[in-house]
Amino acid sequence: MKKLLLFLFIGVTANVAQAQQELNLEDAVMQQYGKYYPTNTAAVQWIPGTQNFSFLSADYQTLLKGNAKNDKTSTIITTAELTTMTGREPRYVKVVEWIDENSFYTTIGEQYFLIKLKEKTSEIVASFPNSAEVKDFTSASGSLAYTQENKLFVASLSFPIANTDNDVVSGQAIARSEFGITKGTFWSNSGQILAYYQKDEKYVANYPLLNIDTPTGSLKSIKYPMAGQGSEKPAVVLFDVGANLVVTVKPSGKKDDYLTNFGWGPKDEHFYIAEVNRGQNHMKLNKYNTKTGALEKTLFEEKSDKWVEPEHPVYFVNDNQFIWMSERDGFMNLYLYDDEGNLVRQLTKNKWVTQEILGHDEAGNVYFQGTGENSMERHSYKVSLKSGKQTQLTEGAGTHNVSFSSDYSLMYDQMSSNYIPNKESIYDLSKGKLLRDVLVAADPYKDVVMGKAEIGTIKAADGKTDLNYRLIKPSNFDPKKKYPVLVYVYGGPHAQLITNSWLGGASLWMYWMAEQGYLVYTLDNRGSANRGFEFESIIHRQLGTVEMADQMEGVKHLKSLPYVNPNRLAVHGWSFGGFMTTSLMLREAGVFNVGVAGGPVTDWSYYEVMYGERYMDTPKENEAGYKANNLKNHVAKLKGDLLLIHGTMDDVVVMQHNLSLVQAFIEEGIQMDFFPYPMHKHNVRGKDRVHLMRKVLDYVIENNK
């Protein structure tokens, strides 16, 4: 009888094992945010003045209404009903913005509509051509701004408000989207005045990219300002839609100073710009008169012997007070000023990074997002303008994304952690308690054979700073075996690879690689994001040096593990990670058998002004730093196999980086490998990404012997 039970148990176990699916590489690359994405509530938005929120049905064909206090739902509108009302067929009901419980704006095709639910009516409020590029809609007036090539339009007008030549660009992001600049148009609070960025690129070098899709090949010329060379000259232009009046503001200092972080005052009477010198070590917050464009006052200044990098505009909490975000004390914190530039008080004094202001209420509380004590997490907080009392609103270790009801009494919290795929909850902030859990997602990989990510810390090369690492092991990990390792690296500013979020912040292909018998290791070295100014600015004038020293501490940690084969190490990264990969293969030659570098910077003098000069200064100012980190100077040291990859239309890290490095290898008589991805930009996206990751990982597996 015991033998029969044992047989049955073995049989059941075999069937369970048989039911487990093996992850294939194509799914690992293409389906992390598709069929393997944790169950979630899509497009949640609070409806103003209510305790209700809208969200999309699982098939995206119905806009539903939920209530904070119970799990009852009802239909707001379907795509079929929206088609009947508008005469246009939407793929799903997209709520651009709720106006009140009865009405919202939506966009279908090339039109914006105002939808009124009770009346079952729709009104076209703005239209744009199919060729429109950047679009910016304001509900304050129902106005729409959009760009076409170098022309900028307001939809209600029959003429372009800016029509410039090829050297002058209007209405688009400037400074290559540095300094937190993500857009180029800014509607005033009333929606009557449009402010927009304009950049004169006359003195910026033309850079040729080869288009192979034409019969004889053709050149696409882009403007690319390389470090130490001619840069763009910015301006901010204001256009009054009703009066057709134009006001232009240029830098108060030198012509190529940066005009960053544009923000409106509460009554549209003033606007504010953070002006940063080209050396990026001096910032002035300037207050301007809207009617005349005159500089009324420099409210305050910030200086640093490394860099000053404002990333957020003024945030007004009432008619004459605003919050400024600054890392002047070593961490990004909130400072309350009056509109004459007098510091009222430092609102937060955290020894961790504040990331974003989320809003404020009538009671005088400001809501914001930050890492909290654990730099791998994200939480939400409120702080009182009067007392400075700070309260954490989110509960549970992990990464939280929240939204608030219009009166800030309710909070919708979506969170994940390394062990929680997705959990959505609603909190009553007025009582400080959980109302209910809306959704607790199951593990989408419960039937997939894959390992787990372990997260820990080691000491940096300075012997005192903690660095976070992530180690992914195969599902059948055996501590008695010796495993090869793939180190995945980025290591540059404004990036953080290891987070307490689902899968530990890792890409799914890393788990696939682990199932091939590998350990996949990542370390966030000094210089990376969300650890404060000292942690990040240690890289100043020496990009690559400190970062590599920390990565080598990661290698020491790996070699200390009894289950690591120290003779079978490989490294891979893209962009700054490509620079790090190539640097490690050349400047720490012999440590890694294999390196695969995608889109790498190989010579910082070939990289753009805005990013490059912040961290490295100009080539003339920092000749030694540029020379030390110019990878062409280290090609003779190569040991092992190195594959360089580049998109031929890369307009971020131009292919000159890789081609010049290949040329240096040829001149030294050293063999290496190079693979182009024709017509791809800085990264390889779409279905070709499967080909890319197959190329990368096959190269590692075949050569890391």
The CATH topology of the domain at 448-703 corresponds to Rossmann fold
How is the biggest beta sheet arranged?
A: 8 strands, mixed
Secondary-structure class: alpha+beta
Radius of gyration: 27 Å
Describe this structure in words.
The chain is α+β, with helices and mostly antiparallel strands and 705 residues long. The longest helix has 18 residues, at 2-19. The chain is globular, with a radius of gyration of 27 Å. The two termini are 49 Å apart. A hairpin with a 5-residue loop joins strand 33 (399-404) and strand 34.
What's the topology here?
Elements (H helix, E strand, L loop, with lengths): L1 H18 L1 E2 L2 H6 L11 E5 L5 E5 L5 E6 L5 E6 H8 L10 E4 L2 E6 L2 E6 L4 E7 L7 E4 L4 E6 L2 E4 L7 E2 L4 E3 L14 E3 L5 E8 L5 E6 L6 E6 L9 E8 L4 E5 L8 E7 L5 E7 L5 E8 L5 E9 L11 E2 L4 E6 L6 E6 L4 E4 L7 E7 L4 E6 L8 E6 L5 E3 L6 E6 L5 E7 L6 E6 L4 E8 L7 E2 L3 E7 L6 E7 L10 E6 L19 H8 L3 E5 L9 H5 L7 H16 L3 E11 L1 H12 L6 E5 L10 H8 L6 H6 L12 E7 L8 H13 L4 E5 L10 H16 L2
Parallel strand pairs: 1-37, 40-41, 40-42, 42-43, 43-44, 44-45
Antiparallel strand pairs: 2-3, 3-4, 4-5, 6-7, 7-8, 8-9, 10-11, 11-12, 12-13, 14-16, 15-16, 16-19, 17-18, 19-20, 21-22, 22-23, 23-24, 25-26, 26-27, 27-28, 29-30, 30-31, 31-32, 33-34, 34-35, 35-36, 38-39, 39-41
